[in-house]
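QA checklist item 7 of 12: single-chain prediction sanity check.
[x] sequence parsed
[x] length recorded as 162
[x] structure emitted
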Amino acid sequence: MRAATYQDVPALTEIFNQGIEDGNATFETVPRTPLQRQHWLELLHDRRFRVYVALAETGETVGYIALNRFTARECHSGISEISVYVRRECRNQKVGQQMLSFLSEEAKKLGFHKLVINVFAKNKIAIRSYRNSGFRKVGVWEKHALYHGEYADMLLMEKLLL
């Protein structure tokens, strides 16, 4: 694992767009361009809110994980909402769990006390991975958003780092 750089933008874009295509990781429905993902990297991430890439032995990017702002309120400065994306052909190979373990340690070093994530309630594989990584269910947003003509439920999960 290492911090993402501008050279990673093509891989970040490809992996995110796979998440859109597969319909189990984001409510987004329009594929992103590399320029849009570069702006995401520049505008939403900094010295504390970071993006990390997971690399295969070959050097290929197999996934990425991000520390995102939960809210702009100072009282929530110790909380990060995370994003986890794994290249399609690398899923179910514990890449996500390895990234989550790494991120938990990095987040502690950066002063976070809690990680949160919203997961499609139908995404059982991701939910199992988060549970195996120490996340717990804290609630469900029922019919949270209209997605491909149907309302989708979101499972809210958290991991305390203290």
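[x] summary fact logged: DSSP finds four helices and seven strands in the chain.
[ ] second reviewer sign-off
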